[in-house]
Amino acid sequence: MRFVWAVAAFVLATVMIGAGIAQRTIFEGPKSETAAISAADEAPYMLIDGAVLNQMPGTQTLRAQGDGELFASYGRTSDMQDWLADATYNRVTVGKNGKIKTTFVEPEPTEPEPADPAATTDPAATTDPAAAGDAVAPAEGADAAVAGRNPAGSDLWLDEYAQTDLLIAPLQLPEGMSVLVAADGTAPAPSKVTVTWPLQTSTPWAGPLIVVGGILMAIGVFLYILGIRHVRRRRGPRRKGLPLPVTEPIDISTIDDADKGVISSQPPTRRAVASGRRAFAVVPVVAVSALLFSGCSADAWPQFGSSPTPSPSASVIAPKGQQAPAVTKAQAERILTRIAATVADADAAMDGDLAETRMSGAALAARDTNYKLRSQIADYKVPEPIHAKPLSVILPQAYDDWPRSVIVVGADEESKTSSIMVMSQADPWSDYRLSYIANLEASTTLPKLAPTYIGAAQVEPDSPFLTLAPQDVAAAYADIIDNGEASEYYSLFEADGDQLRTSIAADRERRLAEFNQTAMTTAQTGTLAFKATAGVQPPFALQTVESGAIVAVNIDETDTATPTNADAVITNNATVAALAGATQSATGTTTTYSDQVFFYVPGPESNEKIRLLGYSSAILEAKVIP
Question: Do residues 615 and 442 lie in contact, with contact meaning Cβ atoms separated by under 8 Å?
Fold first, then answer.
């Protein structure tokens, strides 16, 4: 009977182990699903909608194959459509039937500008071949520029990839994102594009079947050993033998030890022999079980209980109707790194045109002046580099259109200083440019700002919902610089910790003392006047959490040195002479310094005052008074 149970255990174990292994092999099914994307018409770009990538759950693997180096990037769908607004491309979407479809998209024709009536009445305008050729050339050039626009390196993308036989793995784009695939913007986009999703192929009963089968196999082996042991003990049926003669007992005490030989007093027990064989039989069972256990992964077992839920954390909810932030954290860091690299090259080469590709406004004007001075004064100071990493603050504008901007704070770990900057993008095809840059005060405490993933709305220049409208901040602060406590705006601004006012007052006193030490002014033959005004650069403001705003403005400080004697002249120092183009002037000289200043302007119901956050100053221009 033991052999019957052993055979039954062996058979059942084989069936269970085989079923478990089959679930993990021949019955497991495919581990991924792939969808092919094709286009009937060639185009330099292919835009794959996020709905195509999110047809199935899990990460997506995008693979594009073609000749040469291929390019792919992803970003917000609306941004990519704006970037492709003037280009021909294939758009891949999901149709109503759930199938992938490709649509050939061409730019909408633009209305031609009305012709000049004078030109239409001039016979030469219609007969001159040269004039006709000039009229056609701009259109051809514009078409070529659009067709050849390389998407690589655009600040609009959240991330980008470039390699031969392009492979992106993995992607997990949320709703509202799309992928752009191209070559170089001129050659057709890759024709072989596939999207692959992993499939959930869990086999929760494979593990238990294999383990229980292993246990039954061990039981079968045990029963088989017991059966063999039972048969050996019985030795089969015994017959009745002949009667034996009566023997007398032997007294072993009379036998010498030498005669005893090597006869043992007790025979070896059966238990010792059996235990050795049992150990030999159990070893293969343990080894097989270990191998079976090692082949079972987590998805081969049933999962009991609910999935762990992350603990709730404090969050900031975007206001209803607020638009998406202009950039992400990684995008802002990448953009500022590119700006810093370009500006560093421009600083080294004193190339204003190169600087203009990544700077604008007050920041560019200060750089241009520095390059002009360094080209004429050998030891003139080089501008401070742009602090790109790490970024401690990233406050993007929440805006879906253009121009869009972002305020960032970068730190320099060596000098332990921080800079606050404004970066702006004019349109989808332009790079971000640095328009304002200033050094943060050492004791500056920034107001509470919205997180990067939400962003902040821009405050209009004439907004009445602040203590002072952004367009009035520069003029009000300039009035305080000139008039101090006598200014009507003095009570609106925080004086404690305002190092800019202190430094301007000290600098004016020093320059006036130097001016008065000259022989000319000792005889009262000249005057030096100071005047602060709002600069020509427009203000920029982003809202803070507590209904205030960070406002960046431009202030100009102008020094006017004029002679009061017809025989006197104004002698210019090397810096002013390099900009004005004259070492002295009989009519006088004006020197303008540009200040880039950041303020925190609270809301009208706040008890706080307008607080200086940071500033930078640089000479802007010098002119001889005509």
Answer: no
Per-residue confidence (pLDDT) for residue 125, from 0 to 100: 39
49 forms bridges with which residues in the sheet?
Answer: 178
Our count of domains for the chain comes to 2
State whether residue 271 is helix, strand or coil. helix
Angle at CA of residue 374, ends 368 and 377, nearest 5°: 140
pLDDT of res. 623: 95
Nearest to 183 by CA among 323, 391, 43: 43
pLDDT digits 0-9 by tens, 349-385: 999 999 999 999 999 999 999 999 999 999 999 999 9
- In this structure, are residues 535 and 575 in contact, taking their beta carbons and an 8 Å threshold? no
DSSP 396-464: EBB-SSSSEEEEEEEEETTTTEEEEEEEEE-STTSPPEEEEEEEEPTT--PPP---TTT-BPBPPTT-S
Whole-number Å distance between alpha carbons of 296 and 317: 44
Q: Hey, what amino acid is at 253?
A: S
The per-residue pLDDT for 247 is 57
State the residue for tokens 């084989």: 14
Has residue 84 been placed in a domain? Answer: yes
Residue 547 lies in a domain: yes
pLDDT the model gives residue 380: 95
Range of the domain at 102: 32-109+154-198
In the chain, the N- to C-terminal Cα span, in Å, equals: 125
Q: What is the pLDDT of residues 111-154, one digit of tens each?
A: 655 555 444 434 333 334 333 333 333 333 344 445 579 999 99
Alpha carbon distance 498, 502 (integer Å): 7
Phi, psi of 290 (to 5 degrees): -60, -40
At 480, the pLDDT band (50, 70, 90 cuts) reads very high
Which residue is listed with tokens 């602040």? 466
Of 198, 219, 250, the position where a domain reaches its end is 198
**Is pLDDT of 387 > 60?**
yes
- CA–CA dist 407, 600 (Å, integer): 13
